[in-house]
């Protein structure tokens, strides 16, 4: 069985469901509320586990109540949590999320400053056992460490290249597959047009670059040629975590030796199915459900 490492942040999400995301000050009432785990790399790890692969999450949490819930939920989904660093007397990262009636969301993340950026403890991990290493950009020091290890071991890497205060070009340059969010791509390249920005991003790495475009699908480059896979049409309930799930499914398909076109198609399908249920993880499908979905779409 393939084995994948997911490196980055784990977050406790508090999701409020409203008719519309407020655009003015005031008090508002939510229609529903959920408290679940989140974070790009952590949710990607859950997707990989639900698809049927072995997956280790490598990240940091505090020893507070939120950290305990984060660890418990990941373990319940089948993610190996033994490589997570738990900091004493520390707060875990948390997010408040508003989801409107169309499934679109607004996220306010609190990246806990109690979780140190130190990577020395990663020296004890045997990275040679992984088929693919996926990482987000929210713990850049950890991602850089793990991607350098991957390069030494000739292991493919997938970067969830989203918006973050730090310059992500050094991480993009280390990755073999940099999959950007649209805002992340435009911010890094200082461009305002996606196709131009993608070509600009390609100059930062010897690997391949991609950009996810929500329900419009995914655009990517291969040897200077541009390709596009349109998004799958589904009844959207909640888009929270869709990008994270895309990256997890991408890493899963890559580890299984799919062609790049099939990797993107598979990742788009998994992300679309996730959006059919509330929350960032409840809608993540099994491999059987994905294959049935793709077979039905090909008829």
TrEMBL record:
Name assigned to this protein: Ribokinase
In alphabetical order, the GO MF annotations are:
kinase activity
What InterPro entries does the annotation carry? Carboh/pur_kinase_PfkB_CS, PfkB_dom, Ribo/fructo_kinase, Ribokinase-like
UniProt key word Kinase: yes
Natural source organism: Gilliamella apicola
Q: Which family does it belong to?
A: Belongs to the carbohydrate kinase PfkB family.
The record's listing under Pfam families reads: PfkB (PF00294)
Query: Some GO term, biological process aspect, for this entry: which one?
Result: phosphate-containing compound metabolic process
Among PROSITE patterns, the record links this protein to: PFKB_KINASES_2
* One cellular component term from this protein's GO annotations in UniProt: cytosol
Residues in Carbohydrate kinase PfkB domain copies = 1-285
Q: Which PANTHER family match?
A: SUGAR KINASE, SULFOFRUCTOSE KINASE
Keyword line: Kinase, Transferase
Q: Does the keyword Kinase apply?
A: yes
């Amino acid at each position: 069985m393939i084995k994948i490492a997911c490196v980055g942040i784990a977050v406790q999400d508090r999701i409020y469901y409203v008719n519309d995301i407020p655009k003015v000050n005031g008090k508002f009432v939510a229609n529903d509320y959920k408290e679940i785990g989140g974070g790009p790399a952590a949710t990607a790890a859950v997707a990989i586990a639900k698809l049927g692969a072995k997956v280790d999450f490598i990240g940091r949490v505090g020893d507070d109540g939120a950290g305990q819930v984060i660890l418990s939920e990941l373990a319940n989904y089948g993610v190996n949590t033994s490589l997570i660093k738990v900091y004493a007397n520390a707060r875990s990262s948390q997010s408040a999320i508003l989801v409107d009636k169309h499934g679109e969301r607004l996220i306010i993340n609190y990246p806990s400053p109690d979780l140190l950026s130190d990577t020395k403890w990663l020296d004890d991990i045997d990275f040679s056992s992984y088929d693919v290493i996926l990482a987000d950009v929210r713990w850049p020091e950890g991602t850089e460490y793990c991607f350098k290890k991957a390069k030494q071991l000739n292991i493919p890497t997938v970067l969830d290249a989203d918006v973050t205060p730090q310059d992500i070009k050094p991480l993009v340059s280390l990755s073999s597959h940099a999959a950007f969010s649209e805002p992340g791509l435009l911010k890094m390249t200082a461009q305002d047009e996606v196709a131009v920005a993608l070509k600009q991003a390609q100059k930062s790495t010897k690997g391949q670059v991609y950009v996810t475009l929500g329900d419009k699908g995914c655009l990517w480059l291969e040897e200077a040629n541009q390709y596009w896979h349109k998004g799958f049409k589904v009844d959207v309930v909640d888009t929270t975590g869709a990008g994270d799930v895309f990256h997890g499914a991408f890493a899963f398909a890559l580890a299984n030796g799919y062609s790049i076109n099939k990797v993107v198609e598979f990742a788009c399908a998994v992300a679309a199915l996730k959006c059919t249920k509330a929350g960032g993880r409840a809608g993540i499908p099994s491999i059987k459900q994905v294959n049935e979905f793709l077979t039905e779409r090909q008829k």
